[in-house]
Structure to design on (675 residues):
């Protein structure tokens, strides 16, 4: 991330964090004081979260001021999207990883464990290894290897976790 | 003194059986493998093994976890030397001199030196642990709620300060976010449910292990997958076992790095990576001019300093776990969680409830260190093969382990969601230079802060003066203020050069 996007990111996160800090303070104030139960006011559940909310607001407030000093407003006016990050080649790889992993986690509990597990490993490997520019027949080996790894891992995970360590699987 | 030695002897004897030794061997070897694979960190290794071992007896499980911890911190040096990529963040400074040595065709020598350095560092840390844990434990017995409040705040501040040298403000923010995360769910005094918004899963609170597997496992997978392949150095491994003369020439550096590593380990949340950097930096400053020129170009002294420092940090990080229930590093945080799962209650009362346990842990460190040394010097060549497995084949498997690991402890799919959320958010936060260590420390210290701040206020009936007048409180308050003020602009400009060096490296 470049200096410019960092200033922008700091500005946006500080605003989000100030909002979070204030929300924590408000929610803490709304918590019961337990005084009606003859308990000390200082034992109220809102005391510590309130303190954390205040600290978070102060810290992110100082970050907000700092980003203003570093001319964050001008940067933000020029466009909110961190353009330099978006054009990087690695961004596609990062997004592919996140989407694949999240999809797999979503399927768990809905489908019998081995099926999404096999599919996830297989598709993950093929997606990152398959070269669109060369022909399918020349890459047949890659696909067979990916399927073998996926099959072996699924079997091993089930065996090791369920039989050896007696752990539940999703 | 002699009672301690007796307890230690008894503890060592108690592990001298086939089952324990077998556990030591496989757990340490697995640790070395996990440590050397980029994308698999020590924290993640310890977290995964926690889920696998939770049906075992407490002593077996904790022995395995400590072996994993020590093995993986050492294992990171292997990929640092051969790939120029630290296997775990702890070995980042090892790349500076380890990789140039490998390029010069001295990979074997570098591995041997790194192994010996790690071994000696671990031994120094272990001795410090055996001596200081009971002493600190006895002092900690006199701590009350007032002191524990300061420990929680001081922990966040110093951890944020040291893990985010460029921008401590972000470290502190991360710490307070962690404290807030700990507030979610049912609190410990009135059983009032906070910040759950009617969600039954949230009212149980955010579990530490899935959160850590996300922040240190999944986030790591994302950052490893970002780059395409790298090549393993194809150099001759050569002779591995170093000559005694080569190592002991640097005895001063070894002892200095060992002590520095242990002390940094004992600081809450500040882990092996910082320990290695600081001891590397100190070694560079105090090296002879001829040797100093070699730093960064394949200096044996630099390699020793960084590897001794990071492994000495491990026992150091366990000291506050045992005496105060405050983790000294991220893997130690998982270790603390594992101890709680197994019904061991670390903290000041440990000196009364189970003083023998401290020596058992020292004995565990001892066995793990020996195993690390022996395994580190043997089977080097077959291990290099593992490093050649391409990442796109390895990472989906690692992710499956992350999912199963976070699910297994409580059999809740909600925990898998926590893992994914912490992974993605953790990755984004790290991209914006927010360190993960204070966040995790916050999650652990949150409960301590919550109970003790309210207890202290009840005891003093709302008077906050005891927080500043009790001697230890005053000391911690002044230290905290000193850290915060020393990062203010004026003082920073005076000492700016030091910090610049650390962050640039």
């Amino acid at each position: 991330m470049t200096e410019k996007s960092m200033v922008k990111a700091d500005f946006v996160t500080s605003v989000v964090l100030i909002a979070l800090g204030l929300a924590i303070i408000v929610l803490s104030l709304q918590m019961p004081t337990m005084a009606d139960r003859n308990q000390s006011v200082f034992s109220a559940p809102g005391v510590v979260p309130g303190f954390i909310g205040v600290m978070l607001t102060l810290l992110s407030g100082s970050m907000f001021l700092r980003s203003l000093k570093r001319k964050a407003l001008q940067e933000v006016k020029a466009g909110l999207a961190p353009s330099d990050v978006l054009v990087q080649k690695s961004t596609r790889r990062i997004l592919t990883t996140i989407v694949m992993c999240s999809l797999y986690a979503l399927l768990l509990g809905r489908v019998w464990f081995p099926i999404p597990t096999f599919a996830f490993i297989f598709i993950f490997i093929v997606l990152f290894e398959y070269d669109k520019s060369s022909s399918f027949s020349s890459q047949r080996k890659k696909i067979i290897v990916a399927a073998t790894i996926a099959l072996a891992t699924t079997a091993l995970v089930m065996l090791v976790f369920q039989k050896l360590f007696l752990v539940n699987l999703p | 003194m002699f009672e301690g030695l007796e307890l230690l002897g008894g503890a060592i004897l108690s592990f001298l059986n086939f089952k324990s030794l077998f556990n030591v061997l496989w757990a340490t070897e697995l640790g070395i493998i996990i440590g050397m694979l980029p994308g698999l960190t020590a924290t993640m290794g310890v977290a995964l093994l926690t889920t696998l071992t939770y049906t075992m007896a407490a002593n077996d499980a904790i022995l395995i976890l400590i072996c994993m911890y020590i093995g993986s911190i050492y294992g990171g040096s292997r990929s640092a030397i051969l790939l120029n990529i630290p296997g775990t963040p702890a070995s980042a400074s090892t790349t500076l001199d380890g990789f140039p040595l490998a390029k010069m065709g001295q990979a074997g020598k570098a591995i041997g030196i790194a192994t010996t350095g790690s071994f000696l560092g671990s031994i120094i840390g272990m001795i410090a642990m055996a001596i200081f844990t009971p002493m600190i434990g006895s002092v900690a017995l006199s701590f009350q709620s007032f002191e524990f409040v300061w420990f929680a705040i001081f922990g966040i501040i110093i951890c944020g300060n040291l893990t985010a040298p460029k921008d401590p403000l972000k470290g502190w923010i991360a710490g307070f976010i962690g404290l807030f995360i700990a507030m979610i769910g049912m609190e410990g005094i009135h059983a009032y449910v906070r910040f759950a918004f009617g969600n039954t899963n949230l009212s149980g609170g955010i579990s530490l292990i899935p959160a850590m597997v996300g922040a240190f496992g999944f986030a790591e997978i994302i950052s490893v997958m970002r780059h395409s392949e790298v090549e393993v150095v194809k150099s001759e491994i050569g002779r591995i076992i170093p000559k005694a003369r080569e190592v002991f020439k640097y005895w001063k550096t070894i002892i200095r790095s060992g002590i520095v590593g242990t002390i940094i380990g004992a600081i809450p949340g500040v882990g092996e990576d910082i320990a290695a950097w600081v001891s590397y930096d100190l070694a560079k400053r105090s090296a002879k001019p001829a040797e100093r020129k070699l730093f960064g170009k394949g200096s044996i002294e630099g390699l020793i300093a960084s590897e001794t420092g990071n492994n000495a940090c491990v026992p150091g990080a366990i000291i506050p776990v045992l005496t105060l229930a405050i983790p000294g590093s991220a893997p130690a945080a998982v270790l603390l969680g594992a101890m709680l799962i197994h019904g061991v209650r670390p903290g000041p009362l440990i000196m009364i409830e189970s003083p023998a346990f401290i020596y058992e842990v020292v004995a565990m460190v001892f066995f793990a260190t020996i195993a690390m040394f022996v395994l580190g010097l043997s089977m080097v060549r077959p291990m290099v093969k593992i490093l050649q497995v391409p990442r796109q084949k390895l990472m989906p498997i690692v992710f499956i382990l992350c999912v199963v690991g976070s699910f297994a402890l409580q059999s809740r799919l909600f925990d898998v969601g926590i893992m994914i959320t912490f992974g993605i958010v953790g990755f984004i936060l790290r991209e914006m230079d927010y360190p993960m260590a204070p966040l995790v420390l916050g999650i652990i210290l949150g409960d301590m802060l919550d109970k003790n701040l309210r207890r202290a206020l009840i005891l003093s009936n709302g008077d906050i003066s005891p927080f500043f007048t009790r001697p230890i409180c005053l000391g911690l308050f002044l230290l905290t203020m000193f850290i915060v003020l020393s990062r203010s602009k004026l003082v920073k400009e005076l000492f700016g050069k030091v910090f610049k060096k650390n962050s640039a490296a």
